[in-house]
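Let us begin with a simple case.
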Amino acid sequence: MSADKYLKPKGKLGFVITQSIFKTEGGGEGFRRLQLGDGEHLRVLQVDDFSRVQCFEGATNRTAVLILQKGAATEYPVPYNFWKKTQRGNIPTEADHDEAMERLTFYQWVARPLDLKKRTSPWITGRRKALAHVECIVGPSTYKGRKGSCTYLNGVYWVEEVSRRKDGLVVINNLHDGGKIDVENVSMAIEPDFLFPLLRGADIKRWKSSPVYQVLIPHDPEDPAKGFPVTEMQAKAPKTYSYLKRFEEILRGRSGFKLYFDTDRAPFYSVYNVGSYTFADHKVCWREVANELIVAVSSPIGEKVPVPDHTLVTVECASADEAHYLCALLNSSPSNFIVRGYVALHPSPHILKYIRIGKFDPKENLHRSLAANSKALHEATAAANTDALAALEAENLKLAAEYWGLEKSEVADIKASLEELS
């Protein structure tokens, strides 16, 4: 490492580095030891985060500048300046210091590990007061998130319902160009048994879950690990089998099918990441590709449960009240502050390692109030009632602050940090 080779004791080094090294779960842990092997420590003096500024022409990397000192341990929190552009457009590469500064502003934040007991954990950044008692919020959740189902060939499994026939069959048209691989466009009637409302990332808004298409999940909800047995499929749903059979060759060639299934035994139409949780009546879902938490509750539509795809993270819940309780806390400003404070882009299932949410208890008044408020927020969102939404959002923040024991000044700095991130 350069600090070991070039620095004398108490020497200082400044260098350009990717901002994700401070934020990435797992990937940056070795660097965040801030120690030369088992020997000398390195003290971070300051970080300047330019991830919102395109510093290098033609590159979209997340730039940061780190200044450290050899021979002393890092003391947290460390100064962390968050830079933003004050106007649209790139800063010309030939701009001098004064010209660049006219287009830039920065916020004097601080940074610290999310888990102070594990100093290599990802850093969280924000205003000093916002981080003062972040331990109230940070900690493992009792809930577990999972990625949604992955077909590895959406053009076969994602379909649009054209009509329903009097004999009970459903006329479908496959979204043949809806994935990375285009497939044959087929319109035919199949049995409704294995059709479910499809939940994609685009179908999840804050406080709203609204499936547009259907997805074919040819699995038995009672034994969901692999596809419905071929002989039983031929007997129970022959037209669905006939539809899938048209794509057998390309379905057998899917990378996920070859990687995760016994190709000699599993039905060729098996879908990855399907379990009992897939068919749970009540689920909390959020977008996995986003720079903030966008969360909604998914409940049955008629007799069918929506099935999330792989661009969503889902949590199985035992009841609608439990799902709304969890959704209220995840959609709150404190949760978003934790996630946006340490996640660069993907709020994956691991975020539940760092948001302290206990098991829903229907005997707890606060738990019931959170659930009721989330239900009201879903209703107001569906009705596009902006006045009601504003009041209910304020109530949600009040309830979340009470849940985590946050003071008004801490809530104010959390809100300000989120506004500065926007």
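The second case is a distinct protein. As before, the sequence precedes its structure tokens.
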Amino acid sequence: MSNSIGKPVMVIPGDEPPQMQGSAQLDRIKEYGNLTMYTDRPGSKEEQLRRVKDADIILNTRGAVKWGRAEMEQLPKLKLIATCSIGTDMIDLEAARDLGITVCNQPGRTAKLVAEHAFALMLAVAKRLAYQTSQLKRGVWAKMDNVYLQGKTLGVVGTGDTGAEMARLGNAFGMRVVAWTFNPNKERAKKLGVAYVPLDELLRESDVVSLHVRLSDESRHLIGKKELAMMKEGALLVNVARGEVVDTAALVEALNSGHLGGAGIDVFDKEPIGNDAPIVQCEQVVLTPHIAEVTPEGVE
């Protein structure tokens, strides 16, 4: 697991949008190995593989760079893939296990940061901050009701580290918190101060639905047209999980029809998202470019 001078070869195969570029943390890596960073995203699978063909370690800073069985089988030197994320949906974990490749992520390390951002998105949507700012910049003194959140129901979908922290914030704010997870149990419900309910019930009861599940075959488009239709008229949706957890076309339809009162979104199907994307054109949305954990503490 080393090159000619005894240190492992480490490669960041595509840091775009920028995450590790300019980070002081990169200096800490140099004593452990020889690092090469590509600041643009690989344009093809062939280019992706060419960049890491000599790598012992891949530092995957962006989830858009994916590693399936076909790619990993072509990298006999590869021993480790480390992600700068909680999620590992960009890596075929079963294939990595079969090939003896260790995968390291950041479980729990940024949970408080991401939950705080989700809470901020919820508040921003409820108080119409983006809409009112844009109106005032146009010289329009707009009258539109805000949403009062204390005493309302917050539905937390997924109660891992981030969802658990979102539930804590909701309880502290005076909201009633209900939750859904793939594996509910009474002990965890008591610890988190939530009531676990079926997903359909959560969607029907919640004034705000906040998404915190990992992306998997089970959770892809977990929130689709049918689920959005179940939500209360005027309810708010927050997504800091993964873009593909939601059927974006159905979400746009629900927003433009007025069925939903707004959405706060930090993650998208395709990143970076273009300014011509339908979700960007929706009026009652607050959008951030996948930066929930991007604070000095989170970067470190």
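The mean pLDDT is 94. The chain has 13 helices and twelve strands.
Keep these points in mind for the review questions at the end of the chapter.
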